[in-house]
Structure formats: C-alpha cells, structure tokens
Amino acid sequence: MTITLYELVGVDAARPFSPHCWKVAFALAHKGLDFTTVPLPFTQIGAIEGGATKTVPLIRDGETLVGDSFAIALHLEEAYPDRPSLFGGEGGVALSRFIEKWANATLVPFVGASLLPEIHAALEEDDQAYFRQTREARFGGALEDVARGREERLEAFRNALVPLRAVVKRQPFLGGEGPLFADYIVAGVFQWARVISPFPFIAEDDPVADWFERCLELHDGLGRRVPAA
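== Glutathione S-transferase family protein ==
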C-alpha cells in the first residue's frame, strides 16, 4: 500500500521546502517504501484529513495517520522492521534525538531567520499574508529586518558546524558508512535553504558541503530532483 505524505509548498508545487517534510521523504526512501506526496500551501493544511493537523509533515499509512517527523520515523521503524533501519537500534534513536535538539538549537534559528523574505516571496498571495503575520509576531520584527545582516553572522554560523564537520570529515555520514535518520535531520535543514535561497550557508571547501552532496545523491538523487534556487 502506498503511503501518502502531505508536504509544504509555495507557488511552485514541485518545490517542497519544509525541512521536516524533507526528513520524512528521505526516511520513506531509506525504507524503500512507495509514497505519493500531496503538496499544500500553509493556508490549506488545516483542512486535510478532517482537520487532523495544523502542521506538516503528516503521513497516511493505511488507516494510520502520523504527524511530526520524528514520530513518523519511529512509526516507520516499528511498522517496517524488515526494511533498512533508520536508527540502527535503540542507541541510534537516542542519538538522533540529540542531533534533532542540536539542529533545532544551532542550525534552524540562523537559517530560518535568514530565509524569511525569500520564503515569503516563494508563497502564494494568501500564504504571504499568513506568513508575514505569524512570523513577524514570532520574530518580533519585519521579515526583512530579521534577515538583514545575515552576511555578518555567517562566519559564526559556519563556526557552529564544527561538530558536524569533524564527524563527516572522518566518515561519509553521521550514521557511519551509510546514512541514518540523524543524517536526514540535518540534511533537511540544508535542503530547506538550498530550495529557497542561493545564499551560501556552507563554504564550498567545507567537508559539510561534501557530506550534503552525498545526501542529495541518496535514493536515486531524491534531494537533487528539486533544483537549487
């Protein structure tokens, strides 16, 4: 049975950009599961599946609905134990939770703030109004003002990649010789940036850039099928 993934898009339905939806797409492909996607703008999410969620990703797997990217990964691991593991055991689940906390604390704040005007520009008109209202309330200022100065803050962001850089300089993936969900958590953030903006979050000569290129090639080039901004 084909799994349905509800994912976030802007004007171009072929360019999903949510980091959390990308985590799930990578996870489904990792498991070798057939899935179809339902692209949705922000303002239509609340109407899907009888109002089952206010956010995506959301998957329908037969009679089961699962939201939240980590919960979806856990569901896939439990429901399809005969497929390649996303975690490599219970220890991998715990480590992936750490990676998610690290990414949300270290990567997402800078990337998210930096992308605000470009995300807004990629949305349909109704979504633009929703996005500006909600994000300006969240960040406490105009989208353009929040993003301003990202060039000056870029060096500090790149310095914060030291733990990731040290690991992927020694081995192909965070998961070792092959990727695990931990890789998809971080790759989802950089794919978010790649799809929305040409801003150079990663230096070209950084081992992190090489690791991300390897992630884009995974699963028959799933990530690369969406061209960079």
